Amino acid sequence: MKPPRIILLTIAIFFTFISNAQLNKTSLSFGGGISTLSASNNPKASIGFGADVMIKRDFSNRIQGFAQTGYNAYNNPGYNVAFVPLLIGINYKFEGLTPGIGIGYGSSTAGGSTTEGFTISPQIGYTYNKYDFILYYSNTTTTSNNLEGGNWHVFGGMKVLYKIL
Known about the structure:
Elements: H1 3-19, E1 26-39, E2 42-58, E3 63-76, E4 79-92, E5 97-110, E6 113-128, E7 131-142, E8 151-163
Antiparallel strand pairs: 1-2, 1-8, 2-3, 3-4, 4-5, 5-6, 6-7, 7-8
């Protein structure tokens, strides 16, 4: 699937979730985070910052679905890296803790080339009032074998999101 189609699909999903926010089972959160990025074909890791948007929907008292995207920027020696994940997933809610997993698509631009592929992201969160604190790991498997390709690993990531709806 080409990136413009994925972006349009993501926007449609976001508007669907936002329109259901009045039912109080759906929430919209914005925030940012810090993480470390490495590629399987590049031994250098870098620390970066990002901005995130997450929509969550309660399906029951314990099960919650989510859709999440963001933009993460990393300053690698010699070139900059931008990474955009588009994830859908599920969380299990237990006394403020929300362990879960997201799957989807990740696209990264580095050194003038673009790499994309399947992304999986196990994560654990903690909800306090209108804040979500999320620790996560993401792996994007790409079809490229150049320096920027192979597997992209985002590890040691932490996000703080604030619920606005």
